[in-house]
Amino acid sequence: MFTARPSPAPAQDAWPRWTHNDGWRMRASKAGRKGGTTQTLADLKRLRKEAEAAAHRAAAEASKKETARREASARGEFPVRASSSVSAISPSPVLDEQDRILFRRAVKSVQAIKDTRRAILPPVAHASKAILRERRQRAVGEDPVTLPRESDQYSPAAMDQGDTSFLRQGYGPDLITGLKRGKWLINASLDLHGNTIAEAHERLDRFLLSCLEHHIKCVRIVHGKGYGSKDGEPVLRLTVRRWLSQMTDVLAYVECSEQDGGAGAVQVFLRNTQ
């Protein structure tokens, strides 16, 4: 049994003649073609080098300008671009002509006031001068000026009748009546139990200054009834009430009711600092 095999391909009659460039040759464009140009590989390489050189020159020029701008900015100088027709760049107008026409049309019926006779007043302070001075001192880190030191032994003539209540001269008895009836709520309280005379005086001054700064009118001072003091004398009770009668910011005080402390506390009405 015979198997058919394909016959070998016939040899070509003539192979291309051997050349020095292996038969590869760049085909030149025809000169007669419309718009055609004759370019070789050398011309393309030359154009590429020229383009790269131009790009390098542009990058170097931009780098020089950026360096000069930074140096001028560091010296505080701001160079202005010069123009052939204008020496300096004039700012563009905020409103164009169309916007101006619309604005004039909108205010066409508005009439200007000839004389307003308006007085510009300074801003009104929301606190007294003493409180504002204290705030400024605290803002700069200085110690605020405390209230004047009161005497431990002095008592005004109004307290000769008794120390259960006090009313500053020039104010009506309605303050005392309002305090006893609970007209004003107690918004702050200070307990001086267990303090010495010096400690109680310092704490009372700071407490009243804080209440005045925060515009608190009615407060309670708990000084105790003096049962735990030496000889059974209510030293702190009498001294605290003497201090309160000497403070100009205290307008009145009354002894608290039994549910609020009785004889061991007083309800104080402070001056309005607003």
From TrEMBL:
PROSITE patterns: SMR. It comes from Pollutimonas subterranea. SMART domains: SMR. Residues 1-82, 138-159 are annotated as: Disordered. Residues 190-271 form the Smr domain. Pfam families: Smr. Residues 43-74 have a biased composition (Basic and acidic residues). Gene3D superfamilies: 3.30.1370.110. InterPro entries: Smr_dom (IPR002625), Smr_dom_sf (IPR036063). This is Smr domain-containing protein.
